[in-house]
Amino acid sequence: MDNVKTFERFADFYPYYLQEHRDSTCRRLHFIGTTLVILILASALFTANWLLLWVLPLAGYTFAWVGHFFFEKNRPATFKHPFYSLLGDFVMYRDMLRGKVPF
Predict the structure, then answer these.
(1) What is the reported pLDDT for 4?
(2) pTM attached to this predicted model
(3) Fewer CB near the last or first residue (10 Å), C or N of the chain?
């Protein structure tokens, strides 16, 4: 039997997501990766260079996965909850900017 926790709503998932990101270095690496994703996406849209879109997953996931494997010492939530995890990255990014989640 698989021990994958299920979530009906993102509001239920987000506290779990934050629990999986307790290490400050992991959160900072997520922040760097998400910033790069936003900058690359903006650049692709501004320049109409659609090839840049291929770099988005590399920019975002590389920093996040380094944070999880080397600092947080857990498996990224992306593996079990890909859509909620992606949304969680952006919500945590916003919450870090607002000071609700520490850097």
Answers:
(1) 64
(2) 0.90
(3) N
